[in-house]
Structure formats: structure tokens, C-alpha cells
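Give me C-alpha cells for this 454-residue protein.
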Amino acid sequence: MADVDELWAQCAESLREQVSDNVWSLTLRELRPVDFTGDKLVLEAPNPLQRNRVHDRYLQLVEDTLATVVGHRVEVELAVATPSDDDEPADETTQSPMVGVAAGAPRESNESHAARLDPRFTFDAFVSASSNRLPLAAAQTVAETPGKAYNPLFIYGASGLGKTHLLHAIGNYVQDNYSRMRVLYVTTEHFLNDFIDAIRSKTTLGFKRQYRECDVLLIDDIQFIQGREGLQEELFHTYNTLLGAGKQIVLTSDRTPKAIETLEERLRSRLLSGLLTEIDRPDLETRLAILRTKAEYDRIALPDEVAEFIATHVRDNIRELEGAIIRVNAFANLNREPITLDLAKRVLSDLGDETPTITPDAIMTAVADFYHFTPNEVRGPRRVRPLVTARHVAMFLMRDLLADYSYPMIARIFDDRNHTTVISAVEKIRRQMAERQHLYDQVTQLRRQLKGES
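Here you go.
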């Protein structure tokens, strides 16, 4: 193995000169030579995600570099390292680059520290599904051509669905492929603290330079800017400066700009001028895919029945989904037990216990009580404005909360209406929630009530 180690050392030295520090430290540095036969070099990556990342983006570069060192073309085969018996088991603090996991301390590098990015969150680690396909495609387009398309890009959706992951993925992609571009990721809270510190220390010029001279600005949870007039003023001018210079802005929120209260109209109109795209709740298949990807990344032997149990009981928040598998794996490691369905049920006994069963009748009753009608009135044919609103809200909540109910099935509940009526009602409520704060609050209150959260 001395020869293959020496060969790879020469290739690695050349590769490091050809890529950015970020690409080297997060992608290529972890490769290890396994075998060299003269026409084929086998390299091992530490995990499947790392292997796929090298294969999709850097395999040609590695083969070209190897050919220069060896003097002829050599095929490169990428494998995944097999864990040894001495490997440390994953513990509760282990995090993988999955959709929506809260960002932990980033790996140290000059670039990632300056940008405040978490290098674990990449497009490769994001599980694509129908619930997030448009936001993912828009984020990838923005990352590939910063400032050229979808500017600004505004991604909204409930907490824990992957908005933060996409922001970091954009930043990491830009740093990997545009080494001269300056990327800055901040939460709205961090933006506010920087602003207050600048005023307090009389360094507002440095603050403005920091935010207005970057090439890609990523701001998370912009809804918390409501009611902060000074911060909105600063963001307004920062926005104008960056857009005027052709720089990219991406923002996330739990609601659309129209639904953010006390937002200055001039700032609201600018946030609405780009592409608005929503991340929805993942369906069962997506939740299963997320669990299996995490298990593969963390080398957890996760039986199918355990994955299905977790995915069935955790529906709305991907952070909770991944937290469940971490808890099960930690318990199994500590007690030296294999992961089984019985073990998962013991460890996750709190899942679903306090959440009432949501049925069409439960939704109908809750909506009827909320709007002071009877369930029969909500279900029936009368068409007066408050009653029609209640009926449409009930249709929307059934579609939103009952994953197994299709539009025709919901239509039959409402006196056998045509399913196109339900589609129209659901889209109408979705649109009006983005425009009318009071309706957004009403539907949110009903949703939480039905899910046992209030």
C-alpha cells in the first residue's frame, strides 16, 4: 500500500491547489486510497453522501489529475468505507446534514466562519419531494447563477421543513463554485444584534459595508422583522444597494410578505417582486426517505417497520423526525440492544399520545363551532358569506390535515359536490391566507386546536 499512498499523496497535493479551501476540507480531503492496479484506482469516502458528492461533481477532476501524475488515463472507482468494530457508536449529539435539522457549530474554516454557514447542509443532503420540489429547484438555480434569476428569492413555510437547509445549501454551493464571491448567512435575530451593536459602538459604516458588499445575502426567519422600524429601514436600503449591484438576496419566513404584520409597504412590495415559493409538509414517502437517508449517513441499522412507525407518528416537523431516530439509536447503543419495533415504541412512547385523532367529523365540528354554525350548515348548500368562508376553511383543513383524503373524497363529505369545487376552495383559502392576516390567524388557530397544540 505504500505505492498507492504515495501516488494519492501526489494527486492530493495537486488537487488541493486546484480547488477552494472549502471544497478541499469538506469533500476531497476525506478520500482514502484502497487499491491501485495500474488502470484503476479505488478510493474510499467516509459515507455515501460524501461518495455521491465526489462522483457527481469532482470525479472528472480527480481522474484528470491522476492522469497527469501517472502519465496515462486511470479509471477511478469510488467506494464507501466499511465501519470497523472499533468505530464509536453515534450518540445523541450526532447530527447529519438532513433536511431542516437545526444548524450546529460549523466546521472551522476561514470561508465558512466568515459566511456563518454550516457546511453539512448541501443540496446533496436535501431529500427532494413533491412538497419541496419547486423551492429546491429555485434554490439550485439561484446558487448556480447568483443575481441572474429569481432575485430576490423568498421561501416560506412552517418551521422544521427545510428552509434553513436550503439557505445554507445555496451558500455552500456558491462558495464551492465561485471562490471570489462573498456569501453571508444571518438569522434576522443576528441581523438585529449586529445592527444594535453598530449603533451602540458607532460603527454603522462597518455594519453597512459588511452587509452591502457581499455578493449573496441569505436572511433566515425574516418574519421577526415586523414591528422593528429601524431594522426595516436598514434592510430596505441594503436591499436596494444589493439589487442595484446585481447581487443575490434570498430570504425565508414562516409566512408570505403580505401576512407579515407592521411591515413597511415599500419593503413589502420589494419582497414580493421576486419569486415566492412555499415548502409544504412532507408526505409519508418523503418522511421515510429522510429517515433512511439519515440512517445510511449515520450507519444506523434501521428496520423498515421502525422507520414506518416513526414516519407515521411524526408528520409535521423534520427536526422532530430526525430527533426520534437519534433517541432510538442512542438508547439502543447505551443498552447494547438492536433497534427493533418494540424498542422504538418504548423509547418513543410519547409520540402521538397527546395528539387527538383528526377525522373529517372532528374538522367539521371544530370549524362549525369556531364560526358559530352547525356541522350540517357547513356541509350543506346555503351560500351566505360567513358560511361559505367556514365551508371553504373546512375543505382546506381536510386537505391540509388528512393526507389520505383526495379531493373527490372531500367533495363527497360536502353533500357530494364536484371535486373541482374543493380544489377551488382550497386554492382560494391558501391565497387569502397569504393576503389577509385575520384569516391566516383563524386557520392557524383551528389547525393547532385540531392537532392538540392549543
